[in-house]
Amino acid sequence: MKLAILDDYMKVALQSADWDRLRRRGVEITVFDTAFASMEDAVAKLQPFDVVNLMRERTHFPRALIERLPNLKMIAMTGRRAPSLDIAAASDRGIPVCNTHGGEGGASTSEMAWLLLLAGARDLAKAERGVRAGRWHEGIRAGTVLEGRRLGLVGLGRLGLRMAAYAKAFGMEVAAWSQNLTPERAAEAGVQYASKEALFSTSDFISIHLVLSDRTRKLIGAADFNRMKPTAILVNTSRGPILDEAALIEALRQGKLAHAALDVYEREPLPAGHPLLGLDNVTLAPHLGYVNTDVFTTFYGDALANIEAWLDGKPTNVLNPEVLK
C-alpha cells in the first residue's frame, strides 16, 4: 500500500501526526513538498499510489487527473470542503473521499487578514525591503492611521464578524455588503449596511471574506476598483478568483487604489515573472491564512485516522457515501 502526502510546502506533515501507525501496517509513505509542475507531472508521479492525502486545494484534482491514476483507491482530504477536487469523478471510480475538521474557528485567517491590513496601512513590506537594502525611508508611502477610518467588509459571515470586532477595537467605522446580506442582519451585527457601489467608493479599507463559488468568481472587478479612493487599501485572504486579478493589477498600476495586501491568488504558487511580483504597491503572502501548527495537527491527525478507518474497512467522514454501497 502506497500513500502520497501532497503539497507539504512547509515540511511539517511528518511531525504533525504519528504516521508510524501506518508504517507498522506496511504502508509506504512518500511526501511531496513542492507543487507539481503540470498535470502531466502529477500523473507521472502519482500513478503508483493507492491513497493520496490532499492539503486543502493546493493541488487541483480534476476528473482528468483522477481518471489517469489507475491505482488510486482512497482520497484523504484536509479540511471540510474541496472546491478543487472533483468528487463526482472520484465517485464514478468508486473512490471514497474522506474529509477532516476545519482545523480552526476562523481566528487564524482573520488574524492574518488584520495583519495584512496593518501592513498595508503602514507600507510595511516595502519598508522592510528598503531597510534591508539600506534605503531607510526612501520611497515609502506615508502610513495611514486606522482610527476614524472606514473598513468595508465584503462578506459578514464568521470571518467578517471577527474583522468587524477587530476594527471596532481600533476605533474604525465598519460597513458591509454581500449578495445575501440584508440591512437587518448588518444591524444585528452592529455594522452599517452599504450597497456594493457605496462600499467601494467610501471605504478606506476593503477586506474580502467570501467563499469561492460560481456566484462569487470574479465578483469584484474593474468597475469596483475604479470606484475606490486612490488612498484605499484592499485585503484578500479568501480566494484569489473572487477578484478579477488582471483588472486589479491594472488598477494598481494606474493608482486607482493605493495598495493591495494579498494572501491568495488565481494561480498558486505564484509563478515566476507574475505581474504582481513586479509591483511596489502590494504586500504578498504565500496563502498563510489557515497555516499554523494547531491546524496542521488537526488536519494531519484526522486524515491519518480516516486512512486507518478505511484500511479497517470502516471508512469515516466520507463525503461520497454512495461509493460504499
**Percentage of residues in helical conformation:** 25-40%
CATH homologous superfamily assignment of the largest domain: NAD(P)-binding Rossmann-like Domain
Strand content: 5-15%
Topology order in helix (H) and strand (E) letters:
EHEHEHEHEHHEHEHEHEHEHEEH
- Described by its quaternary structure, the protein is single chain
Distance between the termini: 23 Å
| Approximate shape | globular
Structural class: alpha/beta
Low-confidence stretches: none
Number of helical segments? 12
CATH architecture of the largest domain: 3-Layer(aba) Sandwich
List keywords for this structure.
325 residues, alpha/beta, Rossmann fold, 2 domains, 7-stranded parallel β-sheet, 5-stranded parallel β-sheet, 12 strands, globular
Describe the structure.
This protein has 2 domains: 2-104 and 292-324, Rossmann fold; 107-284, NAD(P)-binding Rossmann-like Domain (Rossmann fold, 3-Layer(aba) Sandwich), CATH 3.40.50. The chain has helices at 20-23, 39-46, 63-66, 87-92, 107-121, 124-132, 158-169, 183-188, 196-202, 222-227, 245-253, 293-311, and strands spanning 2-5, 28-31, 51-53, 74-76, 97-98, 150-154, 173-177, 192-193, 205-208, 233-236, 259-262, 282-284. With 325 residues, the chain is α/β, with parallel strands linked by helices. Helices cover 32% and strands 13% of the residues. 39% of the residues are buried. The mean pLDDT is 96.
